[in-house]
Amino acid sequence: MSKFTEQPEPSVEKISVLHEESIIIGFHLTEYMIRDIILNIPASTYALITDSNLASIYLENISIRFKNIASKLFLSKGNNAVPPRFISYVIPPGEQSKNRNTKAEIEDFLLSQTCTRDTCIIAFGGGVIGDLVGFVAATFMRGVPVVQVPTTLLAMVDSSIGGKTAVDTPHGKNLIGAFWQPKRIFMDLIYLESLPERQFINGMAEVIKTAAINNESSFILLENGVASIRDAVLNPKKDVPFQGATLETRTPAQSLLLTVIRHAAEFKANVVTNDERESGLRGLLNFGHSIGHAIEAILYEVLLHGECISVGMVREAELARSLGHLNQVAVGRLVRCLESYGLPISLDDKKIKKLVGNRQCSVDEIMEFMKVDKKNIGGKKRIVILSGIGKTLEQKATFVPDPPIRKVLSPAVSIIPVTSSSNLPNHVTMTTPGSKSISNRALVLSALATGTCRLKGLLHSDDTQVMLVALQNLGGAKFEWEDNGETLVVKGGGGNLKVPDKEIYLGNAGTASRFLTTVCTLVSAMSKTETRKTTIITGNSRMKQRPIGPLVDALRENDSQILYLENEGCLPLEIAPLGLRGGVINLSASISSQYVSSILLSAPYANEPVTLSLTGGQVISQPYIDMTIAVMDSFGIKVERLDGNVYRIPKGCYKNPSEYIIEADASSATYPLAIAAITGITCTLPNIGSASLQGDAAFAVKVLQPMGCTVTQTATSTTVKGPPIGSLRPLPQIDMETMTDAFLTASVLAAVASNNDAGECITRITGIANQRVKECDRIAAMVNELSKFGVTASELPDGIQIHGAKIQSLKSPEKGVKCYDDHRIAMSFSVLGCVVSNGTIIREKKCVEKTWPNWWDDLESKLGIQFDGLEIESEQDLLLTKNEIKVSKDKSLLFVGMRGVGKSILGKIAANFLNFQLIDFDKYFETTLSITLHDFVEKHGWAAFREKEFEIISSLLQAYPSGYVISCGGGIVENPNSRDLLKAYIREKGIVIHVVRDIKEVEEYLNRLNKDTARPKYGEAFLDVWNRREGWYKECSNYEYLSTTSNDDPSMWHHEETNFIRFLKFITGSDTNQINIEQKNKTFFVCLMYSDISSELQHIPTITHGADAIELRVDSLSNNSNTESFVDYVLKQFTLLRRSSSLPIIFTVRSQGQGGKFPDTQEKEMFFLLAQALKWGCEYVDIEICWSHDLISNLIKNKGHTKIIASWHDVMGTVKWDSEEIRRHYRTSEEYGDIIKLVCRAGSIIDNFKLQEFIGSLKTRTKPIITINMGVEGQLSRVLNEFLTPVTHPLLPSKSAPGQLSVSEIHQALHLIGQLPKKNFYLFGTPISHSVSPVIHNTGFGVLGLPHHYDLFESENIDDVKPILQDSQFGGASVTIPHKISIMKYLDHISEHAKLIGAVNTVIVEIDSNGNRKLLGDNTDWLGIYHSVKPLVRIDSTSSGLVIGAGGTSRAAIYALHQLGVSTIYVYNRTLAKITDLVTHFPTCGLVPLTSLSQTFSQSPQIIISTIPGTSVMEFPDEIFQFDKGVIVEMAYRPRRTNLLKKGEEKGWIGIEGVQVLIEQGIHQFKKWTGKTAPRNIIEENVLKKYNE
Ligand SMILES: NC(=O)c1ccc[n+]([C@@H]2O[C@H](COP(=O)([O-])OP(=O)(O)OC[C@H]3O[C@@H](n4cnc5c(N)ncnc54)[C@H](O)[C@@H]3O)[C@@H](O)[C@H]2O)c1
Ligand SMILES: [Zn+2]
């Protein structure tokens, strides 16, 4: 019962909304709430509606407490009083439930419970419940009272207040709803403790937003209270029961949490009260929402509302800044505050990227969505413009024109060049970002000083911001901003510091932590009212690892009491307020000069004058110590440096100068000065001059002056006037070692320094080697990017050399300047961009934020350089989505591999197929050096040979970069240089094929060849050589081909060749053998679950009936041999399969976790296998999306033409099609895959309908998807799936998944459910009674389970077929004599082939895009000939053919020959007139009429096609068989063996029987009608049976 102990009376705070105190905030409010509701909102039934997440945590507790309290309250009323009823209803969680269906469901529940007007509804949950249940209450019985119990932070501060209720529709979110004010809103903050962290962070966005628009002090609480606020929710203290219910038990963190939530809720309540129905004021709440909502609209399924508006707030604040209303200080504070709570500040945020994947949010899309914002008026966008933290420009949203919005949103800028008509200011005076080191020092000193100081040019960074807040918390000073953030007014506190009331949080600000450690020792306990007795400084986790030990040691030795609260030597520190004793302080200064500066800065405030003695040898960064002393001097304290490293600091108090100008950061200062130099204007920087200690400060005098600028410098200011545009002079030689960061600025100027009468305009910059290891290799980057402008530049070992170009000759980089995420590259190229006449795109504009966040604003508003916002495809985006070109087809192709594997033969085939020249490396070597390999090795040794080999292969690749096939020597990989060369070749998109063969076979083969002395011997065991080289071959090749034909058996080379050409076609992309995703009919793949397929090969043709692909389940393979590795075994299996079927192969390694056999622990091994499949040129590779992102994306990068099936299987059967989880898997699959595959498990048939709904809900789907439910209950999903349904076959040993069906079963099922109506097919013509066509097609229909039927329709008169053609059941027809031409008049259109042949033999029924039925006339006769002949002959430019006969069939024969590439076609016929007709019909086919066959052919025919009746008694003279091993095609099929066939075969020719051609033709016809490949082997069997009858 302890769970239900009574709650203490809670201390609550109330907020009034619409003049009633209906919002109640506190901790542990359940009982309070129940009493309040029962007493103040009387009802007979209280119906609590919640979601299943919350129900499981809270419902039981609430229900029991409700019943207890109700009965107690009513007991006291007397016996007759009936306590009210408590009922509850639970819906699924998430936005998916916020729809009309769920609303109806809840209403039905209420009605079934006989709820009446006398019902009070309690909406217990997040915004989804609040909106939905609020809407139910608004309409149930025309409106019943509702109580909102928000349980998410978002719901508390936003959705529960204001009475807006709604549901979503497929047309958009919140489109149907009502205003319905809740009677009460109970914010029990204890509920937040169970909230997932991401949901909590989500709500913080609204909290921060509200503070940002109206309450700076609340914002400061948020800025400083990060750790407490997060802890109060995420790691709450549980010291006492019901902690926080009463003020006594409430922790400070809880109080702070309550305060910030109350502030946010109050503001919303206030707005609602003054402005219930949306108008001006309410618009303020939309800060961040104009852009945020647009992002949300695009990414709503992936991102939460708060995440979107967080990004929106940053963008809108930047917009305000660019419009000149908001300073960078405020933007920086906002950004840091959002970030510190874990909110994203841009869509590039890593966490966001992970969620969003490849989905883009383009500027156009965002602008488009912003158009429909409710706040807009007449197309003009309205956005809340912040004018400071806690302030807005207007008390409502402000009109903003499109261009500035677009600019802010755009990731890239396009700089508009300066022309004579540009409105450039003549003379610009501007301050540039301050030096970070000086900013930090000046802040500390001005705060510790007496009097008021105006700090100008302070750098706005994390460090300075944190420092400022900390000094404020220490009560050390007051700060105020002036001049739009350019001046900080410091009212110094004279060193009177107090113990802050909470810990000081420093984030990761290193300098601040060092400087403040000593400052905190200065705190002295001043008053007794202070609650804390010590000062604690802490930071984020990174900070907690940074060392501070030596400083703490020195201070402890000086009697300061400092404790490490966590790790020894690091923050957090607890510092006692004892003041600093002073006297001699010893400090080890060899680690950081910041320790020294820390003590120096605070030393004047010690009780005794300090003598600081630096120990530990070498003092590092003396200039920084000098800087500290110099700044101290400006604030009135003079440090004396004694001998050695000893400093004496007098006691005293700093005095604030009325103004202190913080010196500019000298590197940043170079950019505006360079703009003056390149555009010819004058620029003055008042905050940096000759007295500066920063090296880069010499830029003006040492670089700009000699280049032709006029430079005037005072101690603290610099003015540069540029020469007229185009007249900068080159600097022949400059050492920039003392100002390395400025070399980029110098380089872009050197690029246009072309004014040198004396000749060359080369600038050489040296001394900058360190720039190679900055954000990027800046020297390389500079050379690269300059070249895009047409500027020649080259790298020097420690510098760069640049050829100055005339400005007019500069090109605009086509895809813009790439910044390598380096701020200096972006800023320097924006200098160059000022003069490039066609404009310059800088790709990543955001990278300037590191040092000059408002650089682009300053460039425009201060320097007068205009630019446009612009969006260009980022290079990264291209990575996963677009099929990156892995290889270039034209580059020469290389073969590597052991001797004897068949490189030369395969090389020849490749050369032939690609039309490349073949170079055999060994032969080339011998010819060029005029020495045999053998002799060379004999004479010079192996080492020399390998070197020579490398030399020659390099020169070969240089000389023959494209159009060659180079077969390399076996040992090429022995030389590391050669290996590097091959690897580089692959990187440059070359193809290197590693040819492998069973290594034992190779050894035997080579042994037999031992007479071969042409090649050098290994001199060691063959297998040792192979073992050494194997890994090298693999790393030096991007493809691998297993040759299975022994060199001794040339007859097998035909098969090898077919297979190898398929491989070549695939890797070069000329024919990838993949399924056309455009095709309309269903496709299937059959899963092979064998452990060894070699014994099953004879079944493959049958098993694959109706399939469009074959899946090789690699995880079910198992090799029994222990001499062969699994990978080698898999390659053999894969190759066997590829040789036994032309269907594309799906390579799948299914893991145990996803229902397969591959061990879940072997992730690396799995990806190795998958990578091999890519090397082997497999058409499809299945990747399970559950593996690590890096492995997957690395693999995908190398996919080449392989299509990736990104799959996910719910083996446990716990995931539903309407869940958020399945959507997440969908998005991940979509990101990785070319094909998406999602498999769940069906519990009932309903799950199949859910699946269909899921498919229907995918709005814009561009990639094919496979969705299946496993299990018998899921069979319907297999019937309905469209693309690549996995199927089984009765001949297979086991199904690969429960519920799997065969193609035939699926077709039958489709027919029965009305999705595949029966069609009738016919043969038109006469005489046709002996035709075998019905056997062909009916066999096909039968085997595949298709319901169709094929019949003869014999008739003389073509008009008889008309009614058949018009019948809606008509499915298609074969056409033979005498109708092949006359049928055309009934057809809607004729295919190109049929037109060219002049005959139709196939009628196809098509349904066009408007659903209209169309009849197409086509011709498959020629296809029968073409495909029968193609595999048997090699056609070249001299090939000729002979067609016998000149009737209708001869046309198809001629056309087929022509398509095969035969250039000379002899046509023999007894009557010349008929041939002449053919010649006129085929004018360009190279026809040669013959009236006699007994003659000498100028090119003896290689193919003979006979189209005369088989019974003809014609004589065939020997002359026509002169060609060696030609092919005869007999078109007549009765008798089966004609005279021609007999005679030809006697002569050694290959004969093709008429029936074979007919079957081939029929198979193409079948495919055209049904989209399916006909079952050839069974058709052949049945046709021959009929034939022999
Ligand atoms: N009416 C308005 O003025 C208004 C304003 C803003 C947002 N909204 C609406 O609010 C909805 C978003 O609300 P949300 O962000 O609260 O999301 P939500 O209601 O979907 O809740 C988020 C998730 O957290 C779970 N959850 C809620 N409270 C929990 C708790 N205490 N412990 C554990 N889990 C908990 C929920 O079950 C859910 O899975 C959107 O539909 C949006 O349109 C309405
Ligand atoms: Zn919002």
UniProtKB/TrEMBL annotation:
Q: Name one GO biological process term.
A: chorismate biosynthetic process
Q: Where is the active site?
A: 278, 293, 847, 1209, 1237
Q: Where is this region: 3-dehydroquinate synthase?
A: 1-402
Q: Where is the Enolpyruvate transferase domain?
A: 429-859
Give the subcellular location: Cytoplasm
Locate the residues binding Zn(2+): 206, 289, 305
The metabolic or biological pathway listed in the UniProt record of this protein is:
Metabolic intermediate biosynthesis; chorismate biosynthesis; chorismate from D-erythrose 4-phosphate and phosphoenolpyruvate: step 4/7; Metabolic intermediate biosynthesis; chorismate biosynthesis; chorismate from D-erythrose 4-phosphate and phosphoenolpyruvate: step 2/7; Metabolic intermediate biosynthesis; chorismate biosynthesis; chorismate from D-erythrose 4-phosphate and phosphoenolpyruvate: step 6/7; Metabolic intermediate biosynthesis; chorismate biosynthesis; chorismate from D-erythrose 4-phosphate and phosphoenolpyruvate: step 3/7
Q: Keyword Metal-binding: yes or no?
A: yes
Q: Where is the Quinate/shikimate 5-dehydrogenase/glutamyl-tRNA reductase domain?
A: 1441-1509
The residues listed in the UniProt record as binding 7-phospho-2-dehydro-3-deoxy-D-arabino-heptonate, with positions renumbered to this chain, are 142, 158, 164, 174, 206-209, 268, 289, 305, 374
Residues covered by the 3-dehydroquinate synthase C-terminal domain: 203-376
Report the residue ranges that make up the SDH C-terminal domain in this protein: 1554-1581
Q: Which InterPro entries match?
A: Aldolase_TIM, Aminoacid_DH-like_N_sf, DHQ_synth_AroB, DHQS/DOIS_N, DHQS_C, DHquinase_I, Enolpyruvate_Tfrase_dom, Enolpyruvate_Tfrase_sf
Keywords noted in UniProt: Amino-acid biosynthesis, Aromatic amino acid biosynthesis, ATP-binding, Cytoplasm, Kinase, Lyase, Metal-binding, Multifunctional enzyme, NADP, Nucleotide-binding, Oxidoreductase, Transferase, Zinc
Provide GO CC annotations from the record: cytoplasm
Shikimate dehydrogenase substrate binding N-terminal domain residues: 1323-1403
Q: Which Gene3D superfamilies does this entry report, sorted A to Z?
A: 3.40.50.1970, Aldolase class I (3.20.20.70), Dehydroquinate synthase-like - alpha domain (1.20.1090.10), Enolpyruvate transferase domain (3.65.10.10), Leucine Dehydrogenase, chain A, domain 1 (3.40.50.10860), NAD(P)-binding Rossmann-like Domain (3.40.50.720), P-loop containing nucleotide triphosphate hydrolases (3.40.50.300)
- Reactions listed under catalytic activity: 3-phosphoshikimate + phosphoenolpyruvate = 5-O-(1-carboxyvinyl)-3-phosphoshikimate + phosphate; 7-phospho-2-dehydro-3-deoxy-D-arabino-heptonate = 3-dehydroquinate + phosphate; shikimate + NADP(+) = 3-dehydroshikimate + NADPH + H(+); 3-dehydroquinate = 3-dehydroshikimate + H2O
Question: Is the keyword Kinase in the record?
Answer: yes
Q: Which cofactor does it need?
A: Zn(2+)
Q: How is the cofactor bound?
A: Binds 2 Zn(2+) ions per subunit.
Assembly and partners are described as:
Homodimer.
Q: What does this protein do?
A: The AROM polypeptide catalyzes 5 consecutive enzymatic reactions in prechorismate polyaromatic amino acid biosynthesis.
NCBIfam families on file: aroA (TIGR01356), aroB (TIGR01357), aroD (TIGR01093), Shik-DH-AROM (TIGR01809)
Q: Which family does it belong to?
A: In the 2nd section; belongs to the EPSP synthase family.
**Name of the protein described by the UniProt record:** Pentafunctional AROM polypeptide
Could you read off the lineage of the organism from its UniProt record? Eukaryota, Fungi, Fungi incertae sedis, Mucoromycota, Glomeromycotina
